[in-house]
Amino acid sequence: MLAINGGKPVRETPIVARPVVYSEEVLQAIADVLKSGILTAQHGKWVKAFESELASYLGVRHALAVANGTVALHTALKALGVGPGDEVVTTPFTFAASATAVLHANAVPVFADIDRETLNLDPASVEEAITDKTKAVVVVHLAGMPAEMDQFLKLADRYGVKIVEDTAQALGAEYRGRRVGSIGHVSTFSFYATKHITSGEGGAVATDVAAYAERARLIRAHGEVGKYSYELLGYNYRMTEIQGVLAYYQLRQLPEMQKRREAYVKALLEELTPLEGDLITVPRPKPYVKHSWHLVQILVAIEKLTKPRDFVVEALRAEGVGNVFVAYPTPLYKTPLFQKREGHGLGCPWTCPYYRRKVEYRPLPNAEWAAERVVSLLVMPNLTEQDAVDTAKAIRKVLGELKR
Questions:
Q1: How far apart are CA 73 and CA 124, in angstroms?
Q2: What is the signed CA dihedral for 196, 88, 366, 362, rounded to 10 degrees?
Q3: What end-to-end distance do the CA atoms of the chain give, in Å?
Q4: Which residues pair with 377 in a beta bridge?
Q5: I need a surface site. Which of 106, 168, 341, 346 has the fewest CB within 10 A?
Q6: What is the dihedral angle through the alpha carbons of 147, 269, 256, 148, rounded to the nearest 10 degrees?
Q7: Considering the entire predicted model, what is its pTM?
Q8: What is the pLDDT along the chain (404 residues), one digit of tens a residue?
């Protein structure tokens, strides 16, 4: 009997995904920052050290730390010159920031469909969505799965658009031997608590183009070019020194943390193999990419079950799988933000006089198909192979009970 119906759960103590525990070295470095009284990046060393480490890790010339992943996207778009009257194409099957950052830049998000095998943007659908108003494409490496960057770069050359890599969920992933975040014109990262490395909050912008980097620096800090002299509209998007300490040491630990993630995922997928092709599908990386496993995305065959996907998730939680959730249950264009189109007020940017068009947010079949079926498992370095075995056991139990 399922635990949700009163049966005994697979795990009495729920599985919980957490960031790695910080070492004494990190705690001492934080204490030293507090004692020094130098808490801001302008006068400190840690944010600068992290930026240098990140640029080296990615193999790019410039990396700028910012307050979080959302403002990283906004900064990147503004650095590319995205603004009123522009369109930016992205995926509807992602966290809101991939599209709301476009609104923050006072431009219009346009959604393209996804590929069912990877759940990433489909380059062919993106090409259909490009118009003479398109300034950029925000390519999300969803769940740690690299997108088809070669095809997106070809679109960039063909149509003169810029490629922004949203790498919030994919630090450490690789595409054809290159680390994601080093391939597009500009890339962005998030260091939120659930990401591959975390400073609690935090983010970064990376690029090889000096002009984009310099503009991003100005945007990050009030557009200030000299003491109380302001060149452009900027913001206060800076990272603090304490965040810099955390991010610096986490980045140095990333290879070891990735090994732990990969061991968990390997064990999980081996245990789930008997269900694949029948009750579930798991998007797996192609031979030329390295998945960094922020999430394991499982697509359940809801047509073969007696209960909907949301019941499956609740049943798994009752079995002790505490790291299960849904990413993402609703394509962004179906959410109130994009249905109401109030934006900045009075409908801007959709009603911007520089735009003078009307975007129709039509259903995208692959995104809606995935949103109905996806069950997500957060992967963190504290998870063990036994956690993976128990998770797979719970999945087999729940789907077995619910199979028609």
A1: 23
A2: 140
A3: 16
A4: 296, 324
A5: 346
A6: -10
A7: 0.97
A8: 999 999 999 999 999 999 987 899 999 999 999 999 999 999 999 999 999 999 999 999 999 999 999 999 999 999 999 999 999 999 999 999 999 999 999 999 999 999 999 999 999 999 999 999 999 999 999 999 999 999 999 999 999 999 999 999 999 999 999 999 999 999 999 999 999 999 999 999 999 999 999 999 999 999 999 999 999 999 999 999 999 999 999 999 999 999 999 999 999 999 999 999 999 999 999 999 999 999 999 999 999 999 999 999 999 999 999 999 999 999 999 999 999 999 999 999 999 999 999 999 999 999 999 999 999 999 999 999 999 999 999 999 999 999 99
Question: Which amino acid, 133?
Answer: K
Per-residue tokens: 310: 């949301």
Q: Which two tokens stand for residue 33?
A: 């920052």
Structure token pair of residue 14 = 């729920």
